# Entry
Amino acid sequence: MKIAYLSTFYPFRGGIAQFNASLFREFEKMGHKTQAFTFTTQYPKFLFPGETQFVQENDIVDKIDSQRILNTANPFTWLSAAKKIRKTQPDLLIMKYWMSYFAPSLACVAGKMNKNTKILTILDNVIPHEKKFFDSAFTKYFLKKNHAFVAMSEKVKNDLLTFLPEAKCELLPHPLYNHFGDIQDKTKAKEKLGIDPNKKTLLFFGFIRDYKGLDILIESFGELDKSYQLLIAGEVYGNFSKYDELINKNPNKENIHKHIKYISDNEVSTYFSASDICVLPYKSATQSGITGISFHFETPMIATDVGGLAEIISHEKTGLICELPDAKYLAKSIKSYFEDYKQEGFVENIKKLKQELSWEVFAEKIIDL
# Structure
């Protein structure tokens, strides 16, 4: 097949770019002629409060050769981008969708394709975590331009069906990332990070946004004894001051280690290898790319029972599901993990799961669809 793939690629950085690069390479391996198209401007600066949208010097990235053709804020480029993609006469146009801001530009491109081009979108979210008044109208407009969808959780599929009850949709779990390197020796990894080698280590990883519930985790950490330590690793969207206030009031604050920055790809292995458990204290969720990283490093997870997280993390098999996004419930789950279970059993289950959640299987099922 001839595939046009319009989404986030190099030189942009982050989990979505990593996802797209991995899937792109699988299509290449399968023998499909695949062309990558990406943005000249992905977000205006006011919509991206992080440090930068672009790859930095220390990032380990797959430099996909993509054409930068679409400015999401400039409608003139929407038409020219559609024209450039249409000229390649693709059998299939693949896009990724995670927030309604992208709906007008992507819908315009999709609407200008040749009638023989099938349009498939991989849905990270249908209903965004941080809601805007225009979400429903924009999302419905975009969804109607597609022939089929891939959802990575039941929650996202159900959200899709509220907009388009007859939508053709395949439910495929998020594949595991495999480009962050190997698992390191735990003691050496802790040494690199300057943390106590003997404490039970919790990890909060990834972009820090309100819906991800870091405040809940910090409060729950105050319920634990001095045998625990918490690693917070990631770039903050907005201001970290409210979390600092919680940390300063925390009775266990000397055991909270802050690494508030974008974690480059070559550092990821150190953080996961140093940790006993990765905690996802989300207030809302569909799925999370962090699960794919954590499973790659064979690190069990504790997650709140929101969105589709319980579909990905099997309770008492690959992690624990905390019934509510509440500090006391979360503290109880953390204590239970270390007191009531053997970590080796979780790790063995994760090793079995790794064989199933490959990029090869994900790509094959998209082609089948």
